[in-house]
Structures are given as C-alpha cells and as structure tokens.
Amino acid sequence: MINAEVNISADVSELTSRRFGLIVIGDEILSGRRQDKHLSKLIELLSERGLSLSWAKYVADDPEQIIATLKDSFASNDIVFSTGGIGATPDDHTRQCAAIALGTKTELHQTAKELIAGRIQSMAEGDPIKADLNTPENQHRFKMGEFPIGSEIIPNPYNQIPGFRIQDHHFLPGFPVMASPMMAWCLDHHYQGLFHLDNRSEQSFIVPKGIESTLTPLMERIEASFPGVKVFSLPSVGDATRGGVYADRHIELGIKGNTVLLENAWIALRAGTEALGYEIYDISPS
Prior knowledge:
- By secondary structure, the protein is α/β, with parallel strands linked by helices.
- The chain has helices at residues 2-16, 27-31, 38-48, 63-74, 94-102, 110-124, 128-131, 136-141, 176-190, 212-225, 259-275, and strands at residues 20-25, 53-59, 79-83, 106-108, 146-148, 152-154, 163-166, 169-172, 200-208, 230-236, 250-258, 281-282.
- α4 packs across α5 (94-102).
C-alpha cells in the first residue's frame, strides 16, 4: 500500500511538472503592425483549467530562427502552442521548419486534404471553375495540409482549414479568431488529465515606499523556509490616476503556489515585512 501511494504521488508530481509554452511567429508582431493577442488568450484558457503558462517566445518569419526555436522546444517535455506561419504564402515557413526540426519531411495529410477540398467547394458557391480542384490556385491551397509526417490534425471551426499537432506541439493559424477555439479544443481533448491537479493561488499586499533590496533577504528566507512557495515583487513608480496608496512609489509583494502551502508563508511574509518597519495595505478584491 505504501508503495502504491508513493507511485501515485510520483505520478501526480510528474504531471504537475509539465510546462506550457507559447511560440508566436510573425514579422508583423515584431514590427508592431499587429498586436499579439495569443499570449493573453492562452493564459486565460490555461487559468480556467487550473494550469499556467511557463514561457513565451516571439520569433520572426525566418526559417533559421524557427527551426532553432522548435528544436529546443521539441527536446523538452513541454506542451507547446505555436501560432502563425502555417498558411501557403512565401512567408509561411512553420510547417516545413517543424519537419526539419524533427528530422523528417512534410506530406499532404489525407484528412486535411478532404477538409481543404470541402472548403474549396463551399467557397465556390456552385461555380464549376472555382470548384475545380485541379486548378493551379486550388492545388496551391492543398499546401496548407502538408504537415510533418506523423502529425494529427487540429480542427478549425472557423473555416475548416486545420492546424496540426505532433509531439505535444500544436501549430495554429496566426488569426486569434481561429487559434483561440483551437487552443481550447487541444487542451480539452488531450490534456484533461492535467486540469486542476495543483490547486494554485496567489496572495499579495501593497508596501508603500518599499525598497526591493531591503525586502529581498525576507523574500529569500520565505522561499527557503516554505518549499514550493514562490515570492514575487512588483515595483511601481506610482500611478496618480489610481489615487490612494497606489499614487506614490510602492511594491506589490506576494506569494504564489499550492493553496495548502500558502497559509503559513503568508503569515511569515506579512510579519517579516512589518518587522522591517513597513506598513501593509491589503488589496481589495476586484
């Protein structure tokens, strides 16, 4: 029985150690022509399921950068969402780069081919020329279904042109209206076993005129004394528009981690902050 409990605990620990990452690909994001909306949406979707985002990277439409980034992420045990670059224009490199990073090639996925053909037919609206799958234009559209060998499709409820997944990596269009529901689908269909395994929460308070160098030793003691708890510090120069304690320089000081672990750490953090001569202002729920 003891061995069984240890094994269950180890299994849960292994599951909760899985990290989620995001790769946003596109020159238009880096140039500022478009604002990224994928990061905030993925954070929201993960949070709703008791999960969190561990890292995010922004990458240009440059094959060398994309391949290097994907080689690193494929070598990890991370669950990764990648947006952008899976179309069929000259600046869409993600599908081929993913294959190169995996040491394989792309091929036309049969189900993707059928979905793309269906999309072509529906968009033709009865026009036999537009519906002809053998025209150069329509043959080019099938490139959007060429994925690394061994990939599975990710359904796209917006226009039926699928994304693909392979080795816990999920490749989605750069359009948030398409990518957002596809992210949710991937989480719900492939990672339900990770939902709400770790009952995480965070608590914080405001320290007016707080100085990080003064608070750092306390933060280090809290983390050393309470394994599994992380202390965070968010300094601000002040915001006159908010008024009150927020108007002048201050620090938001807090802890995050498994809810069960936070109670004693919270007490110690508050007591330690007051012992340094600081006042504490609790944050009202929004």
